[in-house]
Design goal:
The chain is built from 15 helices and 19 strands. By secondary structure, the protein is of the alpha/beta class. A 6-stranded mixed beta sheet has the order 2-1-13-10-11-12. A 6-stranded mixed beta sheet has the order 15-14-19-18-16-17, sandwiched between helices. A 5-stranded parallel beta sheet has the order 6-5-4-7-8, with helices on both faces.
Length: 509
């Protein structure tokens, strides 16, 4: 194992590493029954000692070996007393999610393998959410939603968040918007459970202390028919984030810092567990941002221990009982990293990779053409409140087109109803209008994944964009020669005001 301290505020890799190889720190008998070549250790070199949880670790049966959160969840789901990294287990799935992009393919595989008249394993555990290519005249995109609608009627799917009137989304009370945010808002994310979805950012739900991961259409078709999936238990990387969050930082800066350090391949098929006083201070929406982008480091899943913040968010959202679990004190972590967040600065990920990290202030000469605030990563209520805070503090108008795409219908309503603290009673929508931003669009994934040419805010020309989305690969938001700078809502709003990539500290003290 290598234990590391991530050098806060550094835009270059600067780990302090300490190697400790050997089998003495875990139960040899359980490890040697598998061909996993990794070595684990309990010891960590860190800036600060990780805070001690006030919860008693949950156990699953007769546990012989200490386990991480992810291992405990997979042990419960596979009805085993214990599991170890590298082990393949059949897990019982608590929730399966699919959407309009992958849903038709999943349904096709389900019908091919189980029969045209087959019934899904549980009509109440499948959640189908049209969200990606919705507000478009593209006939193929519209047909995808028709396929979902026919299937849900045929199977009597309980949780189908349909949309029929594309001209007025508010006339569709069942329509929600972006699947990952809707899953949380509608109470489908619960501690200790297994949630799988046909979207790579399904890991977003790990913020609730559950195992959440994206799967392909073939696997989803099998889950749809059986409620089970064969998964390999991932080893866990633990990130200990301590220190007081500066007023100019958001969770997007934290995850960009981590991805910049470990690279886009640094967590390939690994669980990323986030703990520490800084994580405990984050709201649920900020924790969602943190977990949302673990897949950008190759992570299998991201997870945050459930606490009072989690339980408060879930109040009134679900009546399903859940059983949170926590990593044991002597659990095996492949590697541990410590970060003092108080020393971090606002960051961006330059084109064309999420790990192409730089300080926002280092990119102040980069002239931009537009700003995009939206997506599962950056289109939640608190993301817009953060952007509004910058606009309010500046009192100025934006210098480039600034597109606002609420993640869900609830977020859209919040923009028009929720007062921004310190604004004298103004709502986000009022502040955005005064700043010269575009009117908030209909809730959806929008241009995050490019989409048909008539998708709102899609880059149909080679523009340079500062975006709160999660990926900046060539062509991601449309034109293959477009350039995307990933940033927090603070940095995105500050950049809109100047027309250049801008450090939000210019407006926030």
């Amino acid at each position: 194992m290598a234990s590391s301290t991530i050098a806060a505020g550094s835009a270059t890799s600067s780990f302090i590493k300490k190697n400790e190889m050997g089998l003495s720190s875990f139960t040899p008998t359980s490890f040697r029954t598998h061909s996993c070549k990794r070595a684990f250790s309990k010891k960590v070199v860190s800036v600060m000692s990780p805070p001690q949880s006030g919860h008693r670790p949950s156990t699953t049966g007769s546990v012989k070996t200490a386990m991480t959160m992810t291992e405990k969840i997979m042990a419960r789901a596979s009805e085993k007393s214990q599991v170890v990294p590298g082990e393949n287990v059949w897990v019982n799935v608590d929730v399966l999610m699919t959407h309009d992009v992958c849903g038709p393919g999943t349904i096709g595989i389900f019908k091919k393998e189980f029969g045209e008249n087959a019934k899904v394993w549980d009509r109440e555990k499948i959640v189908i959410i049209p969200d990606h290519y919705i507000f478009t005249s593209d006939e193929r995109a519209n047909r995808n939603v028709d396929i979902l609608r026919d299937f849900c009627a045929e199977q009597d799917i309980k949780y189908f968040y349909d949309i029929k009137d594309l001209g007025n989304f508010r006339a569709n009370p069942d329509y929600k918007g972006v699947c990952h945010v809707a899953l949380a808002q509608e109470g489908h994310c619960r501690p200790g459970e297994v949630l799988l979805g046909t979207d790579s950012h399904t890991c977003n739900a790990g913020a609730f202390g559950q195992f959440a991961s994206g799967i392909g259409n073939t696997d989803a078709g099998f889950v749809m028919g059986t409620g089970k999936s064969l998964l390999k238990v991932p080893p866990t990387l633990r990130f200990i984030l301590d220190g007081e969050m500066p007023s100019y930082l958001l969770a997007k800066d934290l995850i960009l810092q981590i991805i910049g350090e470990i690279t886009v391949a640094g967590a390939t098929y690994k669980s990323m567990e986030f703990v520490g006083s800084a994580v405990e201070s984050l709201t649920m929406e900020e924790r969602m941002t943190l977990c949302n982008m673990v897949v950008e480091a190759g992570g299998k899943n991201g997870v945050v221990p459930a606490d009072s913040t989690t339980y408060k968010y879930l109040e009134g959202k679900t009546s399903v009982e859940f059983n949170p679990v926590y990593s044991d004190d002597n659990a095996r972590f492949l590697q541990q990293y410590a970060i003092n967040v108080s020393k971090l600065e606002p960051l961006v990920a330059k084109p064309h990779s999420p790990d192409n990290r730089a300080m926002a202030r280092e990119c102040k000469d980069v002239k931009i053409d537009r700003v995009y605030i939206g997506s599962c990563t950056g289109g939640k209520t608190e993301d817009f409140l953060s952007a509004a805070k910058v606009f309010l503090a500046s009192g100025k108008k934006v210098k480039v087109p600034t597109f606002l795409v609420p993640a869900t219908q609830k977020v859209w309503m919040d923009l028009y109803a929720m007062e921004v603290p310190g604004s004298g009673g103004k709502t986000c929508s009022q502040i955005f209008e005064e700043a010269g931003c575009d009117t908030p669009s209909s809730p959806s994934c929008g241009a995050c994944l490019g989409g048909p040419r008539d998708t709102y805010a899609r880059m149909n020309e080679p523009k340079i964009c500062v975006s709160t989305t999660n990926r900046n690969f060539p062509g991601r938001m449309g034109h293959k020669e477009g350039e995307i700078y990933l940033a927090s809502p603070y940095t995105a709003a500050a950049s809109a005001l100047t027309g250049y990539v801008t450090d939000p500290r210019d407006y926030l003290q």
